[in-house]
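Practice problem: predict the structure.
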Amino acid sequence: MLRRLLQRLTPGSLVGRVFTLYTVTLLGFVLAGLGLFFRYQISEVLEDEQLRGEALGSIIAPVIADSAVIGDYDTIRQVLRRTVTHSVLAIASYIDRSTGRIDEPSPSLLTIEPPAWLIELVGKRLYDVNLPINVGGTDYGVLRLSFDARDIAGRMWSQIRLALLLGGLAVVGGLLLIRFPLVRWLGKLNRVQDYERAMNSGALPVEMLHGGEQAPSEFRQTFEVLGRAAASLQSQRHQAEVTLGSIADAVFTLDAEGTITLANPAACQLLGSPLDRVLGQSASALMPQVVPRSLRLEPWRGRRSSLRNRHDQELVIDTTLSTIVAPDGSTQGYVLACRDMSEQHALDLRLRSELKSRASALVSLRQVLEELTQEEQALARSASSDDLEAISAMISTLVQRLQVRGEQLRAIFELSPDGFVSFDAERRASYVSPAFCRLTGLTVEQLVGQPETVVEFLLQRQANPKARWHTFESLRRQLRQPDGADDDSRSVIELLRPAKRVLQLGLRESRSGLISQVLLLRDVTHETEVDQMKSEFLSTAAHELRTPMTSIYGFAELLQFPQIKPEQRDDLVKTIHRQSELMIAIINELLDLARIEARRGKDFEIESLDLAQLTRQLMHDFNPPQQRPAPQFDAGPEPVLVQVDRKKMAQAIGNVLSNAYKYSPQGGEVSVRLVSAEHEGAPVVGLEVRDHGIGMTPEQLKRVCERFYRADSSGTIPGTGLGMSVVKEIMELQGGRLQIDSEYGVGSVITLWLPRVVAATEHSGWANLS
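Answer:
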């Protein structure tokens, strides 16, 4: 919008544009100079007036003080009146501390009314002069001098108007002085139009190269360049005529009636006639096969015709007829261009014969593709399609099949948990599967295009530096060994990033020219952890079984000595019996755990029963240790229905009660009660067993359900360390969970949570709380 407005306001002539630019520049500098001058002048005037006011106050202050001491207020009034007369003060005041104040205003002598903004500016910059009247330490009053902002602004406004008038006169004078030389120096530029007319006519007089002496040197050079350009144009026209005579195409110039007025040598050669026999002849008479006999010719382009010349030669030519339009729009003549296409026509005939042979080749190709796509019958029914369309359709079918196969392979690669990297013939990574990036934490951008050494370095950077590492070369050596391919222990690495994993390496070489080798990664973290857990379990179980077995073996050897007294023999036999019972208990609990884990609750006989009644029966049958009270059971009168296996639930409750007594060797009450709650919106019931025993630390509490783990490391409390593991497995397989709360030195609270059945007939399944 602004750009178009500037274009409209900008003068069209060079003189006008230069004059406008000079005017804007001159106005800018004059206004900027006036602005700086006014700003400086206003500051100086206001500062001077302020200093004058302060000096005037300092002069009259002693007189005012003397008069104030003796109470001569008339003298004070006269001094104030003389002070404001012929000054820039608006009012002079003396403010007495006891009797009041004396004000003497200044008579208004303003002749020019200044603008409000100037008055406001002066009023903001000047401040009143206040001088205290103090004689001998006694404060008599204050002398105040207030400036007349209107009077000061009026004087300044007179100067500003005078400066603006002088600046305007300077601008007008400068514009008048620059206008005349601009018109004299740049007014000759309309000579360019004369150059244009002369160049269009093809004749440029020599005197037109002169006459711009008063113009600037740059424009004089322009006139000289234009003259040389016109001369060059005349030379180019002559060269065009020579060129037209040397081109191979025949060119005829016809007038409006179709008579040949101009013909180049190639046109004469095409007709086989000299130029004098061609000029003035009718084009339709000389070339009846090319130019039709009509009153008005219509232009055409690329029309192929045959022509027989005077030498009885049959020629094939391409013709184009163009119209020459006069400035008034009428047809002034025609230009007929003819190109001899006889050799190309012969080539076309030869090409057609070759196309026939290629068509037979296409038929053969179609048959081959039909055998590949197995769509002979469908394509045979398509009678409207030619061989090329049929081949295109079959190629499209093959491409679609390849795309489908590629999508299938891509889906397989993306869903496969195993990662792999393929390497090209130069052993650079060419493809990386998503699983490989997920397992190693590396990105496709980091790997693709990198040699195997860089890939190995990136993998090794993610691995545990203390673990064994397998290089590509070692993997290739394993491939060459007859039995090395099945040795997985030699091709396992341990990664620390992005997560701790154990990966099995595999390298497969290829004989293809595109793929040299493929590196496979398989996550065997779970299998490794399971193997480690099995090893630890076997080691722990062997250790736990070896302790009673060692006792049995040792005491059995002692029984073989005849020197043993009968009472000692009885103690040895009892010890062997106790250790045998312990070993049997360990074996039975191991068998229970193995059976529970193997069957996963399939052999449980689930039934709906009253948990309170089952607990009462167990309390009745439970035998606490000697001199220990029976557990206290707190249950309501209403039945609490749950769905459990009676025997397994009794085994779990028995293990919990046994632990409550064993791990409170100093005594204390063992209490049992039923508690109700909700879990994820479903009602649940818990059997809570509380003891006041040794309790457990937070570290012991985390490991309490591990096999063979015992919170008491002294060995004074009997047990196998498998009871809580059995309880946890039983509760989870029944849809419940085990909750353990303990405080060291205070005791433990073990709660067996189960889904509660509101009514046996309404039960259709419960929430799994594990």
